[in-house]
Amino acid sequence: MRPAKIAIAPVLLAIAGGLLLAALAAPQFWGGIKLLPQERTLANLAGGLFTQPVTDAQLEDAVAAWAGAAPWLDSSDGWAGYGDVLMASARRSAADPALRRRRLAAADRAYREAIARDPANGRAWTMLTAAAVERGGTPETVLPLLRQAMRIGAHEPSLVFTRLDIAFYLWRVLDPALKAEAAKEVLSAARFDVDRFVRLVRRHYLLEPVRAILDSDPDLKWKFDDWYLRLYP
């Protein structure tokens, strides 16, 4: 019995296809390898809020690791993660204004890279807006970014406090349309974490405008008032 002939062309095509996929995956693989030691650091930073202790040395290691990994990963989330560690470093660099400026400028670039790869990345839009504020941006610069961040990230409650912090900071120059968007964020934040929301309102001294917005939900307004009086009797 003669052995069956093997069709060479399909086999070669399959091998070539496998090699191509491996080549395409290699940058992401090596980018991920570079970040293995940073597995917990980004979570602990929480966009620069430092939810867990992070030393200056850990933060600098994270900046260096992400600087090498982000171009390899070349993904929207990868660039946004790099922006987050840069923002955290900038906020730790108050004693070195030149370093702070460099890190904020690099964070701005990283978030723009993230948006270029995924224009629907609500975190990147939100943090790009925060970077613009921290770089001393004018309302003309910041408000279009804030508007876009609110539109893109509307269904991501974890981002609402960063956006509201910016909106409250610029409250007196918000146009009616942007105030209406901010009002939606107010309701979302109060429902998501009333304790954190109350502290944010107090920091910006915007009790009366916020209570007026909460008129649309009497139960939520009662909860807000009750919590406010507990914290600030």
Which tags fit this structure?
233 residues, mainly alpha, 12 helices, 75% helix, globular
Could you characterize the architecture of this molecule?
With 233 residues, the protein is mostly helical. The protein has 2 domains: 25-137; 139-233. 75% of the residues lie in helices and 0% in strands. It has 12 helices and no strands. It has helices spanning 8-35, 41-45, 56-73, 76-91, 97-117, 122-134, 139-152, 160-169, 176-192, 194-204, 207-214, 218-231. α4 packs antiparallel against α5, α7 (139-152) crosses α9 (176-192) and α10 crosses α12. The longest helix has 28 residues, at 8-35. The radius of gyration is 23 Å and the shape is globular. Mean pLDDT is 82; it is low at 9-38.
Short description:
The chain has 233 residues and is mainly α. It is 75% helix and 0% strand. It has twelve helices and no strands.
Rg to the nearest angstrom?
A: 23 Å
Helix content: over 70%
Give the end-to-end Cα distance, rounded to a whole number of Å. Answer: 95 Å
H and E string: HHHHHHHHHHHH
Q: How are the secondary structure elements laid out?
A:
Layout: H1 8-35, H2 41-45, H3 56-73, H4 76-91, H5 97-117, H6 122-134, H7 139-152, H8 160-169, H9 176-192, H10 194-204, H11 207-214, H12 218-231
